[in-house]
Amino acid sequence: MALHPQAEAYLRLLSSHEAADLTALTREEIAALRTMDGTPGRRGPLIELPHVRDERAAGVPVRVYRPEPGDHPLPVLVYLHGGGWVFGSVERSDLLARDLARRTGAVVVSADYRLAPEHLFPAAADDAFAVVGDVHARPAFYGGDARRVAVIGDSAGGNVAAVAARLARDAGLPLVHQALVCPITDVAMDTPSYRAYGKGFGLSAAEMAWFARQYAGEADPRDPRLAPLRLADKSGLPPATVITAECDVLCDEGAAYATSLAEAGVAVEYRCYEGALHGFFGLPGFFDHAEEARDYLAARLRSAFEA
Fold first, then answer.
1. How many domains does the chain have?
2. Residues 33-81: tens digit of each pLDDT
3. Residue 42 burial (CB count, 10 A)
4. Cα(160)–Cα(134) distance, rounded to whole angstroms?
5. b/e string for 222-241 if b means 16 or more Cβ within 10 A?
6. Residues of the chain predicted below pLDDT 50
7. How far is 215 from 128, CA to CA, in rounded Å?
8. In a domain, 257, yes or no
9. What is the pLDDT of residue 39?
10. Is the dihedral of CA 104, 164, 183, 80 positive or negative?
């Protein structure tokens, strides 16, 4: 499938800017890059909500978004941002979190999990699970209903969301859904999509290898807390929605994860957006696919909350 015209325009814009060589960055330069945003105005409009506040969940900084006034219990959606386990933040994901709250009618708890390389594996996954556990332990604090909790994450956030869903299963904490957008589910990097889209399509194979090194360190690449695709027993995991972008190195492993969930008896829907690039979900100012995917995912989550 050919690239979507909007994806082609996005790649031309990227090529017109000198990209940082990730492999040569010092820790100080990584920290400086975290405060920069090369896509101003492209992440969507600022949606005003009745209540937005910064809190801590089991020691993890979170931002809580409530889409309607009052203190009656609402469903809760724990959001884990992308950024290769190295970049990303609650602040940078603010517009998306607000949009998710509006579309789903849920309280969104956006987690500022610890980042690599300062905090190695499994710090990000541990923080994600800690937030899920705190929502279950203190639902009233969030204005939430512990019977209606879901997780969502994109890219590396999809990775830690999937891991948090498994840890929640093992701890007996029910989740009604897991929504994974262009997730990292393995670190073998040996799929056909890596070979087809490893260079010249935004997120490169070399960049993914660098991200994995920063987070994984000396960890076993087959550890299912790092590579959830490698989890031997996926039975009993929460129902899932998995979204991928066709022209993304991560496409095949996302599809494989959806298939493995279905084979384990987990209710799952998988959707691949043709001609799309990694990261499209967070950039509605660039990609019409972002609006389509958000509408689809919000409908899936609302159905899960209602059920």
1. 1
2. 787 765 656 888 999 999 999 999 999 999 999 999 999 999 999 999 9
3. 17
4. 16
5. ebbbbbbbbbeebeebbbbb
6. none
7. 15
8. yes
9. 62
10. positive
* 190 catalytically annotated: no
In Å, how far from its chain's centre is CA 144? 21
Answer whether residue 298 is part of any domain.
yes
Whether 248 is catalytic is yes
| Chain segment 266-282, per-residue pLDDT in tens | 999 999 999 999 999 99
For residue 212, which phi and psi values (nearest 5 degrees)? -60, -40
Q: Which of 94, 248, 260, 289 is catalytic?
A: 248
Residue at 16 is within a domain: no
b (16+ CB within 10 A) / e for 173-196? bebbbbbbbbbbbbbebebebbee
CATH of the domain at 93: 3.40.50.1820
Full-model pTM: 0.95
Judge whether 186 counts as a catalytic residue: no
Q: Which domain holds residue 124?
A: 5-11+43-306
Residue identified by tokens 């699970």 is 129
- The span from the CA of 224 to the CA of 20, in Å, is 31
Q: Where are the alpha helices (DSSP H) in the chain?
A: 5-15, 27-33, 94-104, 123-137, 139-142, 156-171, 192-197, 205-216, 251-263, 288-306
- In this structure, what token pair is assigned to residue 186? 């393995």
Which of 93, 110, 155, 204 is an active site residue? 155
Q: How many residues does the chain have?
A: 307
- Note whether residue 165 is domain-resident: yes
In the block, tokens 């899920």 appear at 132
Are 41 and 112 spatial neighbours (Cβ–Cβ below 8 Å)? no
